[in-house]
Amino acid sequence: MVAATPSTISVTLRVWRQAGPDQPGRFVDYAAKDLSPNMSFLEMLDVVNDELTLKGEEPIAFAHDCREGICGTCSCMINGKPHGPGHGIATCQTYVRSFADGDTIVVEPFRARAFPLVKDLVIDRSAFDRIIQAGGFISVRTGAAPDANSIPVPKADADLAMDAAACIGCGACVAACKNASAMLFVAAKVSQLGLLPQGQPERDQRVLAMVGTMDALGFGNCTNQYECSAACPKSISHDFIARMNRDYLKASVRTALKPASAGGGGAG
Amino acid sequence: MNLASSIFGSSLGRKILMAVTGVILTGFIIGHLVGNLQIFSEPDHINGYGAFLHQLGPLLWVARLGLLACAVIHIWAAAVLSRENLTARGVAYGVKHTIQATLSSRLMRWSGVVVLAFLLYHLAHFTLGFTQVASFKESLPRYVLGGDYRVAGFLAVKSGTEVLDVYNMVILGFQKPVVAIFYVIAVGLLSLHLVHGADSLFQTLGWRSEKWAGALRKVVIVCCTAYFLLNLAIPGAVLLGKLHPRDAAPVAVRR
To answer: Is residue A268, in this structure, part of any structural domain at all?
Structure first.
């Protein structure tokens, strides 16, 4: 028998409030009363914000966009777990019914030195963009669309690449990692392209550049605890981290030993 | 980029260094354990083994310096990576929650530090003789081998050779409960360190995948448990009175 869901749920939200990057921050308690169990977590914040606005207080700043789990914008640490208690879902897919009536829910921003806080629950994740800029691309001939299937891709490789490509860049992996490491994100992006024939020309250069940028941005290092994949709203496997480690070692050796062109004939 | 900078200068490279040096050090401690287990046999065995190792001369020093280099690299990489890890979060979370990280993985830093402290004590105890001076092998009467000590069938140390009495040193050393219990605790933490370390090295070197990760974990846990129990056996047997020091001086010398 399914336990009856109460008709309404009331909770206390303990939310991190911080007016700006250089301002002091603190937890503030808000009562969220008589919520529909089927509201999403973000809708609950909307309701609280409506009340705050009516009272003339500053609403809670939080990042959100698609509200259907595909954009990676929402980023709340809910009771110490990125995106809340569920598995394989984003904050926007977490519902009020996941909590019990009377619960106190602690809501914090994702914390990492590489993700500076902007305001309240909003963080700046442009560090991820810089990692992508370092190597998350392929070179293609532009112009007319190529014929379908002109480059054969084994089905297993395509499926695996798609698993990696499911990454929405939300940063939950960094938030959950004890070391604020970005390894799962970088591994997903490296693998997504490295698994496909189109990604081969830049494969070595890509992994070296993306890992180098990740290090330079001040993310921590992987200690193989796999908190990242457990927190990932797309359930991306840490197998991709092993894959990236292998790729990195191979790329390091190949780059060091590969003969350089003498720069002679052929031009013209 | 040259190979040295991509290995020593990057996070992934330093993790690879930790994995590779970890494998070498693990190989050493397994060999060390197998050698030590000869204490359950006649004193000829472990004393002959000790003499054989010392006979290696320059080779012994090559091995010692190689292991020292591995330990230094392992500790250096751990220190650099840990310092980065401790600063990477910035502001701590109000709620600290662990989803599924194992106990051994969360204790790596602490188990590593205790194992290092133990290693230094162990060297001071049985290699250098700074502690328990009276029962150190150099202070004890020499032992005369009752039979040939052979390694892989080849004669290593001849019968009748006067050698250091490792057998008595170890047993007399472990008769102090405080010392024996410290060994057991340290080896327990070393085994716990190995549970995460041995599992992790496959991930770091890129060989692990979910297809066989479960089997790997089971093998690692069985091996580490066996490693702990076999190590426990030596101080355990001394404390329980199952291993006794042989007579202080063999009859052959007295005559």
So the answer is: no
How would residue B42 be classed by pLDDT, with cut points 50, 70 and 90? Answer: very high
Contact A181 B97 (CB under 8 A): no
CATH class of B3-86+102-254: mainly alpha
Whether A267 is in a domain gets the answer: no
Tell me, yes or no, whether A209 and A115 share the same domain: no
pLDDT in tens, B92-125: 999 999 999 999 999 999 999 999 999 999 999 9
Residues of B in contact with A252 (CB under 8 A): 1, 3, 6-7, 13
Beta strands in chain A (DSSP E): 9-18, 25-35, 76-78, 81-82, 104-109, 117-119, 122-123
pLDDT class of B138 with cuts at 50, 70, 90 = confident
Q: What is the ipTM of this complex?
A: 0.91
Please, is B211 exposed, middle or buried when counting C-beta atoms within 10 Å of its C-beta (0-12, 13-18, 19+)? exposed
Please tell me the predicted confidence (pLDDT) of residue A265. 67
Q: Does B84 touch chain A (CB under 8 A)?
A: yes
Question: Is residue A192 a contact partner of residue A164, using CB atoms and an 8 Å limit?
Answer: yes
Cβ-defined contact of B88 to A79 (cutoff 8 Å): no
Nearest Cα residue in chain B from A173: B99
Q: Is B7 on the interface with A (CB under 8 A)?
A: yes
Which residue range(s) make up the domain with A61?
9-119
Number of domains in chain A: 2
Question: Do A158 and A113 lie in a common domain?
Answer: no
**In the structure, what pLDDT confidence band is assigned to residue B250 with cuts at 50, 70 and 90?**
very low
Give CA–CA dist A30/A94, Å, rounded.
Answer: 19
Choose, out of A225, A229, A232, the residue to mutate when testing the contact with B (most B CBs < 10 Å).
Answer: A225
Chain A environment of B99 (Cβ under 8 Å): 81, 176, 227, 230-231
pTM for the model? 0.92
Task: For residue B200, give how far its alpha carbon lies from the nearest alpha carbon of chain A (Å).
Answer: 6
> What's the CA gap between A108 and A76, in Å, rounded?
6
Per-residue model confidence as pLDDT tens digits over B1-38: 688 888 999 999 999 999 999 999 999 999 999 999 99
Letter string b/e over residues A132-141, b meaning 16 or more CB atoms within 10 A of that residue's CB: eebbbeeeee
Closest residue in chain B to residue A208, using alpha carbons only = B6
Average pLDDT over residues A95-118: 97
Residues of B in contact with A16 (CB under 8 A): 94
- Residue A267: CA atoms inside 13 Å, Cβ hemisphere, count? 4
Q: Is residue A22 located within the same domain as residue A53?
A: yes
